[in-house]
């Protein structure tokens, strides 16, 4: 895998020419930005920018005006290779807050192990309805310690209105959900995105995370997707590296909250 070529393809397909990530979302493209407006229940933010020292500040101000005019918090999804080099400082000066950095990691789908045999005592359940989404929300809250209500609403909307774009799975220990994840598909691209992989603390280190990667890799390969893409936390990055994922860049969410 040529890392530079794959990164360029990722930037073109998944950022510059991004499509809406769910029902009701809208993507707007200009010469300098690609942004999505997803409304109160969706993701809002800047996916790609092509800026220089002269254009950066006016474009940043334009995005702030757009989203705050709608009363929406939004994210500027900044990658390490984005220009200008001082864009992080410009975003901070404009009132954004940086969240933890993640690693952009990619692997070839057909080279991943697809042996999705769960550890003893664990069964995998594909999520198809509201009850399954509720189980995933329980895992999210416990695994990440954050409010998963927005993700819950977004996933339920996807499963209802565009089920072909997502497959979600929850790992059960008896009747208790202990891990969950989803894979999202963008037709016409080479990339399937692995999202939301998390395991509650008491069940970590038993191979559940690897099983869910294999489960989703099999589905992505069967659907003809060439690459698997993950925004990996420090916790999942070493596991993915052992599974053959390569780090192509880093990505940092810069979040802007409308002033009340």
Structure description:
There is one protein chain. By secondary structure, this protein is of the alpha+beta class. It folds into 2 domains: 3-103 and 251-256, Aminopeptidase, CATH 3.40.630; 108-249, Gcn5-related N-acetyltransferase (GNAT) (Aminopeptidase). It has helices spanning 3-16, 56-69, 87-93, 130-144, 149-161, 208-222, 237-242, and strands spanning 26-29, 33-37, 45-49, 74-79, 97-98, 102-108, 123-127, 166-173, 176-185, 191-199, 227-232, 246-256. Strands 1, 2, 3, 4, 5, 6, 7, 8, 9, 10, 11 and 12 form a 12-stranded mixed β-sheet that branches. Helix 4 (130-144) packs antiparallel against helix 5. The chain starts with a helix and ends with a strand. The model has no long low-confidence stretch (mean pLDDT 94).
List the helices and strands and how they pair.
Elements: H1 3-16, E1 26-29, E2 33-37, E3 45-49, H2 56-69, E4 74-79, H3 87-93, E5 97-98, E6 102-108, E7 123-127, H4 130-144, H5 149-161, E8 166-173, E9 176-185, E10 191-199, H6 208-222, E11 227-232, H7 237-242, E12 246-256
Parallel strand pairs: 3-4, 10-11
Antiparallel strand pairs: 1-2, 2-3, 4-12, 5-12, 6-11, 6-12, 7-8, 8-9, 9-10
Quickly list its features.
260 residues; alpha+beta; Aminopeptidase; 2 domains; twelve-stranded mixed β-sheet; 7 helices; globular; GNAT_dom; Acyl_CoA_acyltransferase
